[in-house]
Amino acid sequence: MTALAPVLMNRGGLWIGWAGAAAGADLKGLLTAFSKDAGYDLHPVFLSEEEIKGYYFGFSNEIIWPLFHDFQSRCNFMPQYWNAYLNVNLKFAEVTARHSRDSDYIWVHDYHLMHLAFMLRNMGLERNCGFFLHIPFPPPDIFLKLPWRDKIIRALLEFDLVGFQTMRDRRNFVECTEALVPEAKLSGRGNIVAISLKRRSIRAGCFPISIDFNSFAALASSPEVVKAAEEIQEALRYRKIILGVDRMDYSKGIPQRLQAIRQLFVKYPDLQEKVTFVQIAVPSREEIPEYFALKNEIEQLVGEINGQFTRPGWIPIHYQYRNLPRRELIAYYRAADMALVTPLRDGMNLVAKEYCAANVTESGVLFLSEFAGAAAQLQKVGAILVNPYDTEGTAKAIHRAFYMDTRERHSRMVKLRDSVRRNNIYWWVDSFLQAAFSRHLDDFPQETV
Ligand code: GDG
């Protein structure tokens, strides 16, 4: 969860999380060294191979992830995954109970731990508990397909504050609550609303996550990154660079993006040999068959398109399947003339914000999918919205941006950077915690555009 590291560093605290390896792995030395440098403490939770399969790959990533991203047909509703999910949530709750006091604030992150507050309350503990969902929350017609819908919605209502990336997600959550929990009563308007249940009342709010703007901008201006960015531009012969950066995930729309690039060269031959598309895909969840199939599909498409258009001295698509060191990633951001951020559905999408922060020359163009949470904020301030399924429309938008006048590019990027600079990760954490602790619903900082 790279987004949260600067927040923890800034505030301290105890981070309880799965160590990312099976029980028995020797992580102790690494964790101690890491916590000392990081400025906060870490407490690992170890999972068995069986738990990793059923809870992490199974329930979390073969049920909740696809369903919440509107890919119902990719869901694998296996009953045994549900038991694994409950058991691991209980395990996390036990560790949390052991390592916290009544006065501590417990902030739970993401769809892997939706039952945590429920488990804590079952253990008789009354802790102030908040939850933030990093992925979208689906509308009732999708959520109601979940066999465990009642249990999940009621478990979420055990938190004192539930936070979402966009107003749309929060609205979906409220609508699902109304459909499944008849006793729930809604009050308030605006970013935060109250939901009253029989014995208690909880809050639901919209808190678009962000990045540490200054750290990206500073690194992008460092001599080392400037040099690396120049080397990338030189290696690509100073052609215009269009960049895509994603975890290898079907929600990110990489095949559709490649089809849009193909359309670009078919419909607008004037751009052949003038632009190069660089796609960086970070390996992810390779144990799940869907992800493996996606990698093959992408590699085949890249091969086809390069086979069709490559000419001596020009390869249209540069594809890298690896995790880049942070500095190298920022050098790519800096070098790119355009960023193509076109997920089919995304909670927020931090790559869009990181690209803007790193674009210190203020000359880049951001294309953003209508279906990324980030669109709700960035469409008002200069991002060019595209429908990722409309590959011809995306190609047309790229063609237009290629000839866009320098002043327009500049004024769009200035506005984008201003917005991300102001609504940064520290603003996000403050707005969530103020909503958790303030007495009145509208007593917390609003987003500034
Ligand atoms: C989930 C939600 C939401 C990527 N390639 C490399 C690399 N990255 C880093 C990026 C960025 C992060 O990974 C990806 O974040 P996203 O937001 O784009 O997507 P998810 O991983 O799906 O994250 C998403 C997010 O949670 C936060 O709430 O925005 O909607 O799905 O930070 O920089 N980092 C390095 N090398 C790479 O090659 N070092």
UniProtKB/TrEMBL annotation:
SUPFAM superfamilies (UniProt xref): UDP-Glycosyltransferase/glycogen phosphorylase
Gene3D superfamilies in alphabetical order: Glycogen Phosphorylase B (3.40.50.2000)
Keywords, alphabetical: Glycosyltransferase, Transferase
CDD domains: GT20_TPS
Catalytic class of the enzyme: transferase
EC number(s) stated in the UniProt entry for this protein: 2.4.1.213
MF annotations from Gene Ontology: alpha,alpha-trehalose-phosphate synthase (UDP-forming) activity; glucosylglycerol-phosphate synthase activity; trehalose-phosphatase activity
InterPro entries reported for this sequence: Glyco_trans_20
GO cellular component assignments: cytosol
Pfam family for this entry, one: Glyco_transf_20
Keyword Amino-acid biosynthesis listed: no
GO biological process: trehalose biosynthetic process
Associated pathway: Glycan metabolism; glucosylglycerol biosynthesis
Coiled-coil annotated spans: none
Reaction equation(s) it catalyzes: ADP-alpha-D-glucose + sn-glycerol 3-phosphate = 2-O-(alpha-D-glucopyranosyl)-sn-glycerol 3-phosphate + ADP + H(+)
UniProt keyword Transferase, yes or no: yes
Functional note: Involved in salt tolerance by producing GG-phosphate from ADP-glucose and glycerol-3-phosphate (G3P), an intermediate in the synthesis of the osmolyte glucosylglycerol (GG).
Family from the record: Belongs to the glycosyltransferase 20 family.
Name of the protein this chain belongs to: Glucosylglycerol-phosphate synthase
Organism whose genome encodes this protein: Alkalidesulfovibrio alkalitolerans DSM 16529
